[in-house]
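Q: A reviewer asked whether we had any structural model of the full assembly, not just the individual parts. We don't, so I'm hoping you can provide one. Inputs are below.
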Amino acid sequence: MHRLDPRTKIMGTFVFLISLFLVNHFAGFGLAGLFLLGLILISGVPFRFLFRGLKPILFLIVFTMLINLFMTSGTPLMSLGPLSVTEEGLYRASFMALRLVLLIFGSSLLTLVTKPITLTDGMERLMSPFNRLGLPSHELAMMMTIALRFIPTLLDETDKIMKAQTARGADFESGNLFRRAKGLIPLLVPLFVSAFRIAADLAMAMEARCYRGGQGRTRMNGMAFGKNDVFAALILALYATGIYCLRIRLG
Amino acid sequence: MKPTQTSEFWVQAAVIGSLYAALTLLLSPISYGVMQVRISEALTVLAMFTPAAIPGLAAGCFFANFLGPNGVLDAVIGSLATLVGAMGTYRLRRRFCWAPMPPVIANALIVGLMLYYVYGVPFSPFYCVFWVGLGELVSCYGIGLPLARFLKKRRSDLGL
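A: Here is a predicted structure for the entire assembly that you could use as a starting point for your response.
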């Protein structure tokens, strides 16, 4: 799975995410869950990596579940003082939570089995049919690659500036929301200056190496659909048909 | 020799994008969810100075959301909202006080409704739109506008 063509993986992820919104019954989630479980086992990604992606959103999931559980009106199952759990609430809460968890697992699997650079390459190729409509797909992909490359650099830079400004008496941590927001200006201004300097240097360097955009450019590692991609597409089609049939049968 | 328009344009876009993503990730506790104040949205004022900010901000938002807790869908829809907002700012670039408004509206409507319909946030859609919009207002006007004032003064130093 790690070696599949990135285009297959991107399209596959989108089909999976859309399928989750077509599901209207728990049986559909069962199928989606089994499919995802199979993929995870094949990919060999440890489950703990996937759960790590879930952690920041855990609060939202639990909160949404609780509100749905107690606030949905319908046939009561049990009650705790003024709060009562209804059948519909239980159904709605678990339905939403399951969908959210599957959504997150599905999309983190894509990032866990694909290098970001390969991902942007795949996107460039997927967008290339739109070139005729005037979409600069190569430039867009190049921009995304550069942006990705500079995120850690600028994170570092921000941290450095924050420390430097704190040493000069800047205050990032006290006051109300507005004051805090305003306090960030001494951080943003030097950050801008340094970011634009980086951009100017990089543009100059590219120019010095005769970079001329996408036309006629060749690649070191070409992209080609292989047998495995055909196989993966078949399985995906099978899965999508399964979800669709379940929707019609149980809808 | 001065770099040609295109490579400089795209590199500038890229750096603006990573600036957006870096700021969002650094301040991630307040950057996602219904009551979000995404400080990086203040960068949308850059679209007043250079059109490179339009694709840059969209790409930055894409990465920030992709790496954030809400996954691919938020990345696609959220960056669409930022794209629309940045385009609006670019069009209104001559009206200093109105320019930061389009991102506020675009994000409030698109992101607010997305949180409601897709992620099933248990508040009314109006409430989601209101809170996202309010957070956006704080970052675009509270930080964005003073930033724009500074950039206007120092425009030539920054090569914008």
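A: Points you may want to mention in the reply: Chain B has one domain: 5-158. The domain at 5-158 of chain B is CATH 1.10.1760 (Arp2/3 complex 21 kDa subunit ARPC3).
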